[in-house]
Amino acid sequence: MKILCLGGAGKISRESGYDVAEYSDCDKITIADVNEEAGREVAAWVDDPRVEFMKVDVYDREKTVNLMKKYDIVMDGTTISMNDYTTALILESGVHGINLNGCSSEWDFDKEFKEIGKAFVPGVGMTPGVTNLMTKYAADRLDTIDTIRISHGAFRPIAFSPSIAETTRIEYDPNLETRLVYEDGKLVQVPPFARPRDIELPEPFGTLPQYIIPHAETLTLGKSLADKDVRLIEVRGTWPSKNMRLIRELYDWGFLRNDKVKIGDSEVGVLDVISSYLIQSEEGQKTDLYGYALHVEVTGIKEERLVQYILTHTHPKSDGSVKGWEKLRAYTRCVGIPMGIGAQMISKGLVKGTGVIAPELAFSPEAMFAELEKRDIIVHKQVNVLTEKGRT
Fold first, then answer.
1. How large is the average pLDDT for residues 2-17?
2. Residues 100 and 186 in one domain
3. CB burial class (10 A; 0-12, 13-18, 19+) of residue 304?
4. Which domain range does residue 252 map to?
5. Do 129 and 292 touch, CB atoms closer than 8 A?
6. For residues 193 and 160, is the Cβ–Cβ distance under 8 A?
7. Do residues 176 and 47 share a domain?
8. Does residue 163 sit in the same domain as residue 257?
9. Based on the structure, what is the number of domains in the chain?
10. 212, 206 in Cβ contact below 8 A?
11. Cα separation of 107 and 298, whole Å?
12. In what helix (H) or strand (E) does residue 391 lie, and over which residues does it extend?
């Protein structure tokens, strides 16, 4: 089994490659990236004889496709804006694929992946990804579902990498059409900072206001759980409070529209300038608290009782008390590890079906949770009976 880690020099994607090296018996793992210095650094850091680096410019289409054909699986860790293009390359190469984001047009390739008998699983990070499987775990134990409320806290610097800066911009873009909620069988568009709700995250993160964000769970769960009569699906998120205050001010002042401004003889997008500053500044590269926190609440009927499932997750502290989880790695490991696990499940033939498959249909929740636990990422489950049988 050979795995190509596309964009594997990124701070998150390197964790996926590291996990494959640490937990699998894969024969060959190639870190493929246009950034040669960072890619060689990652290969040396993983320190495994099966791991090598190869410089790859994905826009050299023919060369990239010919390279992919030599592998069994491509783990795509490139940015959201590239995923339409990179998914097409994976399809053309005729191999299995998996990516982190799941927020582009990967779903349009379903028929073609089925025709070649391969699986492509988009959005296998913490959210989307593990949240899909948390929801599926609860759904499997309910007869019908009333509400699905998915929330997360991503505690990381606002712009520690270009891809993270891009994600920040996209989620609160006032013109974004894919910031949606699922209500009574329809997708409803909402503006930035819509439907605030206080969410209690596991310690040390605490209770914070969260807002609707554009995520793949809203699109996939309504279809994959169609037999459960789901009424409402909402996905919310938050970043550190300081980051959220900045984004709110940028929104209120119109900066998120990225209007062009004239500086001397040049015209530049005002948000492009701010993003470049944050990527290059100390303020954009650090935060007080690092890590990731998930909160999934599913309410529905089981044997005429109204039942609520609450699933959360915890991981080792970022304070340096646990080796490998220091500061930013407490965030990047959480996001990157699920894609590494997913690739290993594909390699073992554990994915259900072919085509473009949502995480909740591709993988067993229990199997994913068991693999996460081996890596000290623990999924916690709470069940509350809200009304007894025969009572309203």
1. 96
2. no
3. exposed
4. 130-333+374-387
5. no
6. no
7. no
8. yes
9. 2
10. no
11. 25
12. none
